[in-house]
Amino acid sequence: MAAKKTTTTTRKTARARVRGSAEAADPGYLLLRLYQAYEPFVESLWPWEARRWEEFVFCILDTVSRQAFAPAALREVAALLGRAHVLEIDRLGGLDPAHNEADAADAYVVTITTVLRNAGFTDDEAGAAAAAICEAAAGFKERYEGKVQKYLRDYGELMLGEIGSAFAFSGLPPADTKRVFAVWLQNVLNMPLACPDAITDQACQRLQVDYGALVKAADEVGVNVALLDNVLRAYWERDIELGAPEESQ
Description:
The protein is mostly helical and 249 residues long. The chain has helices spanning 8-18, 27-38, 49-64, 71-83, 89-92, 101-104, 107-119, 123-144, 148-161, 174-189, 198-207, 211-221, 225-242. It starts with 7 loop residues before the first helix and ends in a 7-residue tail after the last helix.
């Protein structure tokens, strides 16, 4: 949760980059502006949910292939597929190349299998990997609206709901106990749990935006909700240190 140290000049630059977006009606636009301005000041292993999905694809490739590929090489293949825009969950989730010849001939599937074969996968391995990617996408699409972090958040919330069965803190009320675990899960697992507090509330008030609207926007644009909390805290910290934002010229 701790923000990285930075110079006053850099802080002013960040404030200038986000200044004026507080009036934006679209929470998604505001969120992206905040991310662009403050991401350098916060720690996050998975800032973009697309990267989590690419890591899932890497795990499929690493499991399906029986050859000795270096992990870095397979991650680059997954990243290449992402850059080619053929890992879109909404599109792949509606395909079943393992059981439908028309789906196997879909341009996205053909591109995936071609890239994999060029990377050294056998025809069978490439086909199996493409099928598994589509089946994973179908699961995310059908149960989690195509949002990887909604899947993770469901289980993060489940973990928070079970705290009382294993832990008891005599000096902490239940709400504070839940927050301890939520922040811990954010920090050690990059778990996309929403964890508002007085600071994020004040940041949202200054930005004239509802926190819930930003969480929804984070899901829509694919920004890790854990990063959202840290970005809001970074915004609040720098706003307090620098004073109220200047009027746009």
